[in-house]
Each structure stands twice: as C-alpha cells, then as structure tokens.
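Box S1 | Example of a co-folding query
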Amino acid sequence: MPHDRHHDRAATDTTGGPVRSGGLVTQGLAVGYRTRSPRRGRGAERAVLAGLDLEAWSGELTVLLGPNGAGKSTLMRTLCGLLPPLDGRIRIGGTDLAQASPSSLARQLAVVLTDRVDPGLLSVRELAGLGRHPHTGFTGRLTAVDHATVEWSLRAVGAGHLADRPAAELSDGERQRVLTARALAQEPEFVLLDEPTAFLDVPSRVALTVLLRDLARDRGLTIVVSTHDLELALRVADAV
Ligand SMILES: Nc1ncnc2c1ncn2[C@@H]1O[C@H](COP(=O)(O)OP(=O)(O)OP(=O)(O)O)[C@@H](O)[C@H]1O
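Box S1 (continued) | Returned holo structure for adenosine-5'-triphosphate
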C-alpha cells in the first residue's frame, strides 16, 4: 500500500481504540440472506460474511478485495441499507445506519451497484442530474449550481462529451462512468461503488480509480470500492 492508513490515526483512546469520529465503521457485522418460508415466518438465515469489523475513513479510498462470490456485493448492499444486516452494527458518520432517516442518508451517501439501470428516454445529462435530487427540494428543479455540479461530475469521469446522448445508447463502460458521475453529482460524504471498473478498459480503470482516490483526498470523502483487480487495488488504494 502506498499510503499507511494507520499512520493517519496513530492517536488512540485509553482502550487502544481509534479516537477518530465519522467514517464508515462496522462492528461484528454479519451479512447474507434470509430465505422466505411461507409456512414458518422469517425462514432460515444464510450468512455470506460474518464477524466483520471494518473501518473506512474520510479522505481515503478503501478497497474491498475478493474473488467472485466472496460476498462483496452482499456487503455493499448491506452497508448502504438496502439489505438488513443479519447481525452487528453499521455506523455512518457517527450515526447508526438503522437510525438514519432516508432523506439525510440520501444527502450523505451515494451508491453505484452492479444492477442494470433502465434510463428510459433520459439523456446522459439528465441521468447524471438525478444525483442532485436529494438537494433540489420540493419542486425538483435544478438551479444553476446544480447544473454546474452535474457538468463537473460528467467531466470528472471523462463523460463530458456524452452529455447530450440518450443514456439508453451507452456502452457498458460509458454507462459505468455516467452512473459514477451521478453519484458524484450527489455531492455525498460517503460513496460506495460496487465494481466500478468492471466494464472499463485498462487506461480508464486506472484513471477512474486515481480520480476516486484524489476526490477522497481533496474533498475529504469516504470512498469504498469493491473489486477483484488486485494490482490496481494495491497500487492506488489507501486501505485494502
Ligand atoms: N439474493 C440472493 N439470495 C441468496 N443468496 C444470494 C443472493 N445474492 C447472492 N447470493 C449468494 O451470496 C454469495 C455472495 O454473492 P455476492 O454477489 O455478494 O459476491 P461477490 O463477491 O459480489 O461476487 P462477484 O465478484 O462475482 O460479483 C454467493 O454465494 C451468492 O450465490
């Protein structure tokens, strides 16, 4: 790792634990699925990962590395509140995820999962503009500041030239960039991206990962990315 995360948080409390607040922290987290049983209520639990004590901090790009089927997507879905934890706690910015209101979570946290998105008839600019929704209030109208943020986010991921294209016509790699732009347009403190480089060619993989690391450092974001790209993770990530 090029950057020793432990160097940044040398301060500890009397129990030896970190004194840093905020960040994305889990304690004893178990993630997985509950099978539905129509006759017997809740059904059985199938844990995919258990006993996870994870920390991701502001200003750092944290990478979740694991082979196919390891549980990265399951963990990502749980960290953003889409899947209930089977056990343990998740704290985001010092607040228990289970207690966070959906509207405050939407302003704080942006997520890009691997699910296919149907953009309908939206242009690329309009699709990225959806990221502004938590900030637009009752009318949903974008102000000049919102428009500027969307343009910036598209340019940041190298998709500025696609802005007027119908989003439904994008290639997989182009769509991946635009969805990343939508997440950045949200101006969140926390960004979770599940395999954001999966469809990208090698130069674009490096460029996007370096961009995410720089955004984390320059804007103090907490960015968590899953990947099975070992080399890139080790070269660029602040914590793996
Ligand atoms: N909806 C579901 N219900 C039950 N089990 C599931 C469900 N989705 C995934 N799983 C199982 O959970 C395990 C972890 O899957 P997950 O998709 O989280 O892994 P991953 O690390 O993201 O893999 P990949 O790198 O292939 O995307 C797998 O064994 C998978 O079959």
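The first helix runs from residue 5 to 8. Residues 173 and 199 are 5 Å apart (CA to CA).
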